[in-house]
Amino acid sequence: MFAHPSFPDREGFGRRAIAMDPEELRASLREQCAALLEAAATEGVAVEGVKPHGALYHVVATDLDVARVAVEGCSEIAGPWVIPPGARLAELVATMLVEGFADRGYARDGTLIPRGAAGALLDDGEAAAEQTRLLLRMNRFQTLCVHGDRVAAVVIARAVRRVLDDIATSSQQTP
């Protein structure tokens, strides 16, 4: 399990960047991580790393000051950080997993198309499967994301899984 801390934005599901005093943000992230660590310990589950959520994910990719606060706020959790390609956060963490999105559209410059814009969300299993094949051919991602809060999440996850299973099967058959 990975911690998934965000800006304290319950109404916007963490998808809005909030200008905050660095100490307030650090404290909020510490509180979120501490709550997860406590719940995980109760269930006997390990927290293996950090993947910032929503707007925080995007801000720590480009703003080194906020990235530094996030790393400090989540310092109780050891392990890799999940980041987008080229994230400034990579300058601050020892281990990272570069992430691609199977269910999100990408702009020509390689950034995610902003939510709400045409092509930002892939709602079709076949489109997500094709996106997964493309991301894997790029050979720059160590992990893939499928958002679980979408109506088509199960369809998309199954399509992505089929692609991964097909690749695993074909690599086992190749001498």
Largest sheet, strands/sense/barrel: 3 strands, parallel
Name the overall outline: globular
Outline the low-pLDDT stretches: none
Output the helix-strand order: EHEHHEEHEH
CATH class of the largest domain: Alpha Beta
Rg measurement, Å: 17 Å
Total DSSP helices: 5
Q: Which architecture of the largest domain would the CATH scheme give at its second level?
A: Alpha-Beta Barrel
What separation lies between the terminal Cα atoms?
34 Å
Classify the helix fraction into a percent range: 40-55%
Number of domains: 2
Output the strand order for the largest sheet: 3-4-5
| Overall mean confidence score, pLDDT | 93
Strand content: 5-15%
Number of strands: 5
Structural class: mainly alpha
For the record, what is the CATH homologous superfamily label of the largest domain?
Answer: Glycoside hydrolase/deacetylase
CATH topology of the largest domain: TIM Barrel
